[in-house]
Amino acid sequence: MRPFDARMLDVGDGHWIYVEEVGRRDGVPALFLHGGPGSGSQHLHRRLFDPERHHALLFDQRGAGRSHPYLSLQENTTQKLIADIEVIRTHFGIERWIVVGGSWGSTLAVAYAEAHPERVAALALRAVFLGTRREVEWAFVEGPKLFRPELYADFVGALPEAERADPLAAYLERLADPDPKVHRPAAEIWASYERALSELAPGQSRIAPSTGRSERLPPTPFVEGHYIRNDFFLQPDQLVREASKLRGIPGVIVQGRYDLLCPPHTAYALSEAWGNCRLEMLDRAGHAISEQGVMEALTRAIRELTDNA
């Protein structure tokens, strides 16, 4: 499916965001929120929507993808992204829409829905992440130690010995270093590590030593690091504590049983606090949308919510 229109929107603070429309302009409005933070919307994501039924909008968040300035961390916060979503909604004259998001996209979807519940007709979420420190510690340290110890050893072993006691802090500091000789290898290792953790059966289960000379710098680690250093600009347990605001919004959560980055207990906790949603657990899937059955289950969920919208 190709966009029938695309444009750059000025959202202020020096940021311009890329927004594309797929489906049909008179269709059921839907919004897709990509992960990362920093990864950008992909062609694959368009396939979640029915071109005959939906008016779907996909955009690249601040600093990501085709938005400008690229990789900018200035005025790049969760609250600013929520405001950007409202700019998009009002620009296109949409009253209410179905909001879809996975991983960090699920975080932003929940944060937006709690801020503007009257604008959300339904929520379709995948691989729930709620932006807490303990989730980050699990994803990058505790989980890999238990389930992918050889991968974790590679992640830690790429650091100088003096920095290995707290590898997460060391990588976050290196990603923020302005020197390319410092941040480039850190970004390459981080991206490889996260990619391997996102799949139930990764094609490459070890991390190759970084050369620091890749043609294209992986973008996600820099934006992701910025958000992690700032606790995703959320208060502790904010999204679960305020889940009562979601009670009037129907939803579906699609969750991989063996998701190491965003484990099932987080999706379960949200579903219990929310109450007005169905949790669909996929027993043979990890984190990525490309995992077995995930794309199909999320597409079905969107179709189901559209039928009831």
From TrEMBL:
UniProt catalytic activity: Release of N-terminal proline from a peptide
Record key words, sorted: Aminopeptidase, Cytoplasm, Hydrolase, Protease
A Pfam family reported for this protein in Swiss-Prot or TrEMBL: Abhydrolase_1
Biological process (GO), any one: proteolysis
AB hydrolase-1 domain span: 31-292
Protein family membership: Belongs to the peptidase S33 family.
Name assigned to this protein: Proline iminopeptidase
Organism expressing this protein natively: Hyphomicrobium sulfonivorans
